[in-house]
Amino acid sequence: MSLIHDKKSIIDLYDQNAKKRKLWLKKNSYYHKELERFYKFNIPENSSILELGCAGGHLLNALSPSYGLGIDISPEMIKTAEKNFPDLNFKIADCENFSADQKFDFIILSDLIGNLFDIQTTFNALHCACKSDTRVLINYYNFLWEPMLKIGEKISLKMPEKYQNWISADDLENFLKLSDFEVIKKGFFFLFPIYIPLISLLFNRLIGKLPLIKHLCLVETIIARPAGKPAHPPSDNNGYTCSVVIPCRNERGNIENAVKRTPKLGIHTELIFVDGSSTDNTAEEIKKMIKKYPDKDITLIHQGDGTGKGDAVRKGFAKAKGDILMILDADLTVPPEDLTKFMDAITSGKGEFINGTRLVYPMEQGAMRTLNLIANKLFSLGFTWLLGQRFRDTLCGTKVLFKKDYEKICKGRHFFGDFDPFGDFDLIFGASKLNLKIIEIPVSYRERKYGATNISRFKHGWLLLKMCFVAFFKIKLKN
Q1: How confident is the model at residue 2 (pLDDT cuts 50, 70, 90)?
Q2: Residue 376 contacts by C-beta under 8 Å, 6 or more apart in sequence?
Q3: Directed axis angle between helix 424-433 and helix 457-471, to 10°?
Q4: Which are the contacts of 415, defined by CB distance < 8 A and separation ≥ 6?
Q5: Which residues pair with 242 in a beta bridge?
Q6: Per the domain annotation, does 131 fall within a domain?
Q7: Are residues 105 and 166 in the same domain?
Q8: Interval 96-119: pLDDT, tens
Q9: What residues form DSSP beta bridges with 299?
Q10: 332: left (phi > 0), else alpha (psi -120 to 50), else beta?
C-alpha cells in the first residue's frame, strides 16, 4: 500500500470524525483538561503559537494566543475549527510539507507524531517557523498503552485512529538532533486516565511523578529548541554588551581585585556594585575605584531598605544596560577570570541560563565546610529531579542569562512569589518555568581572603528545604 493511499485513509478517517469532535472531547474531557494544563503551564498567554495537527482547534484556542495558526491535513477538521474559533487562523496542509510566512514563539505537535510517515522531514520543516528562542512542545502516547487505547476505540470511548508509529523518547530525541533541535526537557504524566476525585489527583500529580513509575504514564512529553544559536541577537551589530552585578556587604578588601580581575566581556562591560549597608567603608572603596579606574564603567548602587542578596541582585539587574547579565560574588571565591567561560557559553548558543558549579574541581582547603558540601550535593540531586534539568550546585553565586530572558522571569515572578532572599532560586525557578536551556560550568572555588561569610548554614539550610517544597508544589506537581 502506498504512502499516498495511507495518507488518504487518515484524511478520510478524520473527515468522518470532524462533526463528532465535540463528542469525543466530551468523552475524554479529563485527558484533554490535563493536556491543556500542561500546555498552559509552559506557554504564557498572548504568545504566538503554531499548532501542527490542530484537528478542531480546541487546544490552540484554550491557550489564548496573540496570534494562533492551526494546520491540519483534514479539510473537514479545519472547516470545524474555522466555524468554532473565527478569531484564530487555520490552514489545510500536510504537516510533513508545510510552509509558514512568520516565526512563532511556540510550536505544538500534540498527538501528531504517531500519524507521521517521515518525522525527520517534519522536524526539518519546523525551522521555517522558528525564531532563535522558539520552543517546540511535543506530546505523544506511551506505546505500552496501545492495547488499552484500541479497546477504548472498540467500545466507543475514544476516537478511532490508524495504528501509530512506535516511537520511544530516545528515538524522538534522535530525530530532533538530526533536524538541528536540542531537547531541553523530557517528561511523563497521566498515570490514571479515569477521573475519580482525589484518587486521580494522587496518582497523576504525585505517584506518576516518581522515578520508574513515571515510565508507565500514558503521555510522554518533550520540549526542544533550535540548536546551536544564541537565544537573542545583540542590541549592537558589533557584538554583545555585558553587565556584571556584584552584591557586596562588608567586602572592602575585595573591591579593587573585583575591578582589576574582571575581564572585558563582549564589546562593553559595566560593573555594578550593590552595597548592602556595609559598615567597613565598602561604599567609599567603590567610589575610590570609580575615580582610580576612569576607563572602566563602574556604578555604585545603595541597597537602601532592601535586605539580602536576592534584593541586591534585582536592584542591580534593574539598572543594568547590558544584553547579558552576570552575577559575581564580591568575596571572589569564584575567580572573576572564569566569567569569560560563561560569556562564551551563552553567546555561542550552548545555553541560555549558565550556572556555575563548585562541586567538580577540588576546592581550596577551608573554602567549604564538609557539612555544607554534603548538603549541596543532596540538594543538587533533589533539584535535578524537581526541575527536570541537571543541577550539581544550586547555590553557586555565579549565574548568567540574557537580559530579555530576565525580563520574562520578572513578568512571571508572581507565579512563585517573593520567596527567595538568596536570589539563586528566583532565577533558577524562573529559568525552569521558561524552559531555558540550563547548563553548568565548573569553576574553581577558593577560600575567601577578606571578611566573613554572611551564610548561616543551619538557618539557610532550613530555607533550602523550603525551596525544595516550593519547587515541588509550584513546578513538579503542576508540570
Answers
A1: very low
A2: 358, 359, 368, 393, 394, 395
A3: 10
A4: 433, 474
A5: 269, 324
A6: yes
A7: yes
A8: 988 888 999 999 999 999 889 999
A9: 272
A10: left
Distance (Å, whole) CA 204 – CA 83: 34
Contact 52, 112 (CB under 8 A): yes
Which domain covers residue 105, as residue numbers?
Answer: 3-226
* Rounded Cα distance, 121 and 16, in Å: 27
Question: What is the percent of the chain with per-residue pLDDT over 70, rounded to a whole number?
Answer: 92
* pLDDT tens, position by position, 12-37: 888 998 888 888 889 999 999 999 99
Do 146 and 291 fall into the same domain?
Answer: no
- Report the pLDDT value the prediction gives residue 372, as an integer from 0 to 100: 65
Is 234 inside a domain boundary?
A: no
Burial class (CB in 10 A: 0-12, 13-18, 19+), 249: buried
The verdict on residue 233 lying in a domain is no
The answer to whether the CB of 148 falls within 8 A of the CB of 127 is no
Domain annotation covers residue 193:
yes
CB count within 10 Å of CB 219 equals 23
Same domain, 110 and 217: yes
Rounded to the nearest 10°, the torsion over CA 18, 19, 21, 26 is -170
Question: 32 and 107 share a domain?
Answer: yes
For the domain that residue 420 is a member of, what is the CATH number? 3.90.550.10
Closest CA to 110 of 226, 225, 221, 215: 221
331 and 220 in one domain? Answer: no
Domain count, the chain: 2
Q: Position 165: which residue type?
A: N
Domain end point (choices 174, 199, 226): 226
179 and 289 co-located in one domain: no
The pTM score is 0.90
Among residues 226, 253, 268, which one ends one of the domains? 226
Place of cell 528515538: 171
360 lies in the same domain as 325: yes
Do 190 and 321 fall within a single domain?
Answer: no
pLDDT digit string, tens, across residues 395-421? 788 999 999 999 999 998 888 877 777
Torsion of CA 454, 384, 380, 315, to 10 degrees: -10
Check pLDDT > 70 for residue 49.
yes
